[in-house]
Specification:
The chain has 169 residues and is an alpha+beta fold. The protein folds into two domains: 55 residues, no CATH class; 113 residues. The chain is 40% helix and 28% strand. The chain has a seven-stranded antiparallel beta sheet. A hairpin with a 4-residue loop joins strand 3 and strand 4. The longest helix has 21 residues. The protein is elongated.
């Protein structure tokens, strides 16, 4: 079974989005499964740009961000003191997910919304914080862009969630 078939077979599965991202980035970096990773001209001539490009879609990146944000919430909740008066949670909606901070007298949130041409990040007042766009570059890499700057997945999540998870009132 081809890798792209495995990815398509698991469509909607978080593992598929991770696999698709890894396929794109590994192929772009010359790591085509043979372990040599040298990325020489011969390897590059066989670069499967179609598979890599098909992995670079907003729905797949959105699903990856959602899965990683869920892990961030679990990690942050595990760091709370035993009787902490606050808790973080994640809720899904159609084409959106929201990370919540809930405390006795406080409720704040950050929403990631999948749009046609970007992923919008909004505060709990529906004010836009920033948009994430995708760029498939000349090296065959799927890159996230915020304000025309390339960002890693963790950087986008930090930009969106750091204030929510670590702000001291």
């Amino acid at each position: 079974m081809k890798i792209v078939d495995k990815v398509n077979e698991k469509a909607g599965n978080n593992a598929a989005t991770d696999a698709a991202t890894n396929i794109a980035n590994n192929a772009a970096n010359g790591r085509n499964g043979n372990g040599n990773g040298n990325g020489d001209a011969k390897d590059r001539s066989k670069f499967d740009w179609v598979t890599s490009r098909s992995a670079c879609t907003l729905p797949k990146v959105f699903a990856t961000l959602r899965q990683q944000a869920e892990e961030d919430v679990k990690t942050r909740n595990a760091q709370r003191p035993t009787y902490a008066p606050y808790e973080f949670s994640l809720a899904d909606d159609i084409d959106a997910f929201t990370v919540f901070l809930k405390a006795k007298d406080l409720s704040r949130s950050v929403t990631f919304k999948l749009n046609e041409h970007d992923i919008a990040v909004q505060d709990d007042q529906a004010n836009s914080r920033f948009q994430v766009k995708l760029h498939f570059n000349d090296l065959g890499e799927c890159r996230l862009r915020v304000d025309e700057q390339e960002r890693e997945f963790w950087q986008v999540r930090r930009m969106a969630l750091e204030d929510l998870m670590f702000r001291q009132e």
